[in-house]
Amino acid sequence: MKILTEIKKTRCFNRFVLLVVLPGLISTFTACSNDDDSDIPVYSLKDVDGNYSGKMLTETAPSVNPQNYSSKEEQPQGATVTAEVKDNQIMIKKLPVDDLIRSIVGEEAAEVIIENLDDINYNIPYTAAFNDDGKGSILLQLKPEPLEIKYTPPTQVKADGEEDPQITVKVTIEAEEQGQYTYKDKKLTFVIKATQVEVEGVPLKDFPITTFSFDMVKK
């Protein structure tokens, strides 16, 4: 009987210890699990949103426009650009169109037009998806819309009540490849092409395809 009593006491003691220790073990494992979860980065397609600055390089078929090359290094310099990515749109501020205008009307006539142009902002809608490289980047399927450039030629004589004449240039923009945002360097790169131009609804013959390559970094 004495032995049975001792066995019962031992079992009761073990149960008591288990009830006391078990909650502590559970909380410890839970805390460790939470710590591990906090180290796992959370990715979102909205990670591409933000303000960017960088360069835009213009290339006119069949050869690179010499305006973009440095006389010393003979390397393309590009034009400085800024953009905001928000609401599934790349919003380019003050899009540099000088080389595009030159390719449309020629060098001599372009200078007068460029001097009288207002700032041109251009938005590019897109749909985003993670790349299949382990979420190291986000791919942007660009859906560019036509770019409209409205130009008011300077006039010397104008009758009373007469409005300034305005010329509308419609540029068809296409994107053959997807844009990309990389997490490692926070870089946004994409390419669009001007493939056709209409001046007041009339297609421009022999327009050289003009490519715009963007390379920007999030601020």
UniProtKB/TrEMBL annotation:
Listed transmembrane segments: 12-31
Keyword Transmembrane helix in record: yes
Polar residues: compositionally biased ranges: 61-70
Keywords: Membrane, Transmembrane, Transmembrane helix
Pfam families: DUF4840
InterPro entries with a match to the protein in the record: DUF4840
Native source species: Bacteroides vicugnae
Name of the protein described by the UniProt record: DUF4840 domain-containing protein
Keyword Membrane appears in the UniProt entry: yes
Residue segments, region Disordered: 61-80
Top-rank lineage group of the source organism: Bacteria
